[in-house]
Amino acid sequence: MSAFASVAPPYNMPATSRGDTLLNDTAEARSRALNQFLASVELKAYKIAQAGLRHQDDALDAVQDAMLQLARAYADRPPEEWKPLFYRILENRVRDMQRRRTVRGRVMAWLPFRRDEDDEDADPIAQAPSQELPPVARLELDEAMTALDGALEQLPDRQRQAFLLRNLEGLDVAQTAQAMGCSEGSVKTHYFRALQALRLKLGDFEV
Amino acid sequence: MNASDGEPSQSTLLQSGLEVRSRLVLEEGLSRIDARTRSRLNQARQAAVAAAARPSALTWLYRLLTRNALMPAGAAAAAALIAVLMLSSGQRPAQPVAENPAATLDVLDLVTDDDAMKLMEDNDSSFYEWAAAQADAPAGGATT
Fold first, then answer.
1. What's the complex ipTM?
2. Across the interface, which of B17, B44, B68 has its CB nearest the CB of A14?
3. DSSP letter for each residue of A135-162
4. Which of these CATH numbers, 3.40.50.300, 3.40.47.10, 1.10.10.60, 1.10.10.10, describes A134-202?
5. Using CA atoms, how far apart are residues A123 and A39, in angstroms rounded to an integer?
6. Chain A: nearest CA to B84, how far in angstroms?
7. Of B19, B45, B106, which has the smallest distance from its Cβ to A183's Cβ?
8. A19-110 in CATH: which number?
9. What is the mean pLDDT of each run of 10 residues along chain A (207 residues)?
10. What pTM was computed for the model?
C-alpha cells in the first residue's frame, strides 16, 4: 500500500462534499461579481440602447437580452472581459432590432387598420424623474439634454456608438474596438468624426 | 474617470470642454432615469444572475461522477474524455495565419468604412493632428 493511502483527510468531510462546497463557493462568488458588474453598466447600457433605438421598451428589451446572453454564455470568462463582451452583445441586439423594425415598418405600411404602439398613453407617475432639482438648474439641464440628445440622434450609428462607449461608458480605444467589432483605427476615426459633428451642432455647449 | 468626482485626472484635463460637458449632461441624464425603468433593469439583472447561477449540464455531470458509488466509473469516464479531447485537438489541421492580422483588419476597415474613405477624400489633416496628439497622451485619455 502506498504512503498516500494512510494519510487521513484533513477534514472530517467526504471528498464529494468538499468538491460541492468548492463549486458552490465559486458559483456564489461569480454570481456576486456578475451582479455587481451588471449593476454598474445597466443604466449606461440602457441609455446607449435608447440612443440607438429611440424607444424605451425596445431599449429595455435589448439590455435584458444582452444581460441574459452574457450570463448564459460568458459568465465563466474573466470579469475584466465582461464589459467589451456585454457591449458587443448589446450592439448586435440593437442592430437586430433596428433591422426588424425596418422590415416591420414596411409590412405594417401595407396593412389597413394598423395601430401605432407609440400611441399608448404614458403613465405620468411612472415616467417621473427619480430626483428633483431646483427649477432653473433643471431647465438648463433639460435644454442641454435635449440639445445633446438631438445632436446624438443625428449622428451616424457607428459615430454615436463610439462617442457613447468612450465618453459615457469610459471604455478605452481597444475596448471600444472590441465592443464595436472593428479596428482601433476605425474607433479613432468614428470618435473624431462624432466630436466634429457635435461641435458643429452644439458649439461651445455651455452647461 | 467620472467627471463628477472631486479631482479630475490627467486624462480628463486633456479632454475637450465638449467631451467633459457632454459627459456631465449624459451622467445627469442617467440619474434622472425614471423609477419604472430602474425597476425593470433591476429585474432583468436578477434574471440574468439567476440564469448564470443555474448549474450547467457540465456541473451536473461533474457532481454525478464524483459521487462515491460512481467514483471509479467517473474517473474512467473523465480519463476517456480527456484522451478524446487530446486526440481530437492533435488532429486539428493547422489554421492559416495572416502575416499581420491587425494590418489586414485595418485595411479592410478602411475600405469598408464610409467615414475613413471620406476622411481620405477630404484630405482632412486635422484628424491626423488629433490622432498624433492622442498618441502622445496617456492611455485611456481621449484628446482633441
1. 0.73
2. B68
3. HHHHHHHHHHHHHHHHHHHHS-HHHHHH
4. 1.10.10.10
5. 25
6. 23
7. B106
8. 1.10.1740
9. 45 53 74 94 95 92 95 91 95 92 74 53 53 69 86 93 94 94 95 93 71
10. 0.62
